[in-house]
């Protein structure tokens, strides 16, 4: 088949026009998906189950009350205590205002708030940095309720997650936890929950194992009388946490980092 | 070529050393262990059956434990439906398996020791309270 110059130019012209229209259409489509994507990951209220916690620090008055929450958690999860800050393992711990909420203070902050200790734990972030960096997916965000879980079987102890977590919520087992002094006493052990092994990173799991049995997290239960910690589904407008968030001014730790913590604090007023 | 004596002597020594482990262990094979099932919980069961058949469990319990681990931890599936008896079992090594098999030493460890396998389950998971463990 032969083609003259005129036909050739006509075909070239038509193909250019068709290609242009197709390309523009593709671009339009991509923009559509991009928008849908940003809506899904933006700060929109969810509609499934996202577990969250509101800690009303006004109701935690004495160090004894902190200790009760911490002890309940650490006992429920067989958290080792080596009595040595270098080997410290912590799931829930107290710290002062400056270290809990860096950047939130100023020189005229109420003395009461500045001197207060805050109960800190894994924030179960909406966009957890630890999950992004984990090379084995040992830490992952559970789709069913948003808990950032640890699969200790998969953890290789690289500690990327510890570097990534801006909240210091993760601890590394430098030593075999079974050797810790507090775990030598059978009265301190929870025989239904495992320990960890040397060389893995551990953190708060929002008591996934207790939730499975229909119980509340250990820390929530431990200070039930003060109602200092409210726990529930953030996506349910009728839940207790949403009620707390609606009726109180709450802050998150380091919100500027964009991980969107799921632990909120009522700090005063 | 007068090294015949040395070569033969060397060969005999070599064969002797090489076969020493086989000869010295001959007839001393340890008996195939029989895991004990006489725990209080098992004895009280009206029908003595495990999650799956004995043969299946014997051959596949390690894969099953891995599957259970991923089902519970990663997929949030809390119970396992048995293929052999249709019952639902709560997925838990510590609280389901070892509830019946509370004799880890005479059940798990006998075979594992015989086969020289060293599962690291017990680095984290608690075994049952047994005398001398």
Which features does this protein show?
heterodimer; A: alpha+beta; 9 helices; 9 strands; 13% strand; B: 133 residues; 6 helices; elongated
What would you say this structure looks like, in words?
The complex is a heterodimer of chains A (269) and B (133). Chain A has 269 residues and is of the alpha+beta class. Chain A contains 9 helices and 9 strands. Chain A has a 3-stranded mixed beta sheet, covered by helices on one side. The termini of chain A are far apart. In chain A, 34% of the residues are buried. Mean pLDDT of chain A is 89; it is low at 34-41. Chain B has 6 helices and 2 strands; from the N terminus they run αααββααα. With 133 residues, chain B is mainly α. In chain B, 11% of the residues are buried. Helix content of chain B is 48%, strand content 5%. In chain B, β1 and β2 (88-90) form a beta hairpin. In chain B, strands 1-2 form a two-stranded antiparallel ribbon.
What are the segments of chain A in which pLDDT stays under 50 over at least 5 consecutive residues?
34-41
SSE arrangement of chain B, N to C: HHHEEHHH
Number of distinct beta strands of chain B:
2
Strand order of the largest sheet of chain B: 1-2
Class from helix and strand fractions of chain A: alpha+beta
Would you tell me the structural class of the helices and strands of chain B? mainly alpha
How much of the sequence lies in strands of chain B comes to under 5%
Work out the helicity level of chain B: 40-55%
Q: Can you tell me the overall shape of chain A? A: elongated
Q: What gap, in angstroms, lies between the N and C termini of chain A?
A: 87 Å
Largest interface: A-B, 17 and 13 residues
- Biggest sheet descriptor of chain A: 3 strands, mixed
Count every helix of chain B, treating DSSP H or I runs of 4 or more residues as helices: 6
Query: Helix content range of the residues of chain A, please?
Result: 25-40%
Which assembly state applies to the chains in this document? heterodimer
Number of helices of chain A: 9
The best one-word shape of chain B is elongated
